[in-house]
Amino acid sequence: MGPPDYIGVKDASIHGVGGFIVGQGKACLPTVFRMEWPDWVKQEILKTNAGQKGTLTNSDLEMAGLLLLWLVMEE
After folding, report:
1. In this predicted model, what pLDDT tens digit does every residue of 36-67 receive, in sequence order?
2. Hey, is 11 helix, strand or coil?
3. How many CB atoms are located within 10 Å of the residue 64 CB?
4. Are 10 and 22 contacting, i.e. CB atoms less than 8 angstroms apart?
5. pLDDT at 45
6. Are 64 and 23 in contact, with CB atoms under 8 Å apart?
7. In this predicted model, what pLDDT tens digit does every residue of 10-20 receive, in sequence order?
8. Neighbours of 42 (CB within 10 A)
């Protein structure tokens, strides 16, 4: 199977998500991406962190960040 053709790293926080993609097995222009969450996302995280009935957790942000990484890779 071998090593992957592309490597992507991302991280998410209450402020937003960002990461980078580089090529390993295939040529790829190194790409950096960053996106700030909309205000409604930030508010839901603040509620959850304060023990209120927020609908999002940090794991949700990390999963959304992974999806964004995959979308950027497809470009």
Report:
1. 999 999 998 888 778 888 888 889 999 999 99
2. strand
3. 17
4. no
5. 87
6. no
7. 999 999 999 99
8. 15
3-state SS, one letter per residue, for 18-71: EEEEEECCCCCCCEEEEEECCHHHHHHHHHHHCCCCCCCCHHHHHHHHHHHHHH
Are the C-beta atoms of residues 72 and 64 closer than 8 Å to each other?
no
**Which is more confidently placed, 25 or 41?**
41
Nearest-CA neighbor of 8 among 24, 37, 16?
Answer: 24
- Return the structure tokens found at 4: 């992957």
Rounded to whole angstroms, how far apart are CA atoms 35 and 49?
A: 21
Higher-confidence residue of 55 and 9: namely 9
**Does residue 5 sit in helix, strand or coil?**
coil
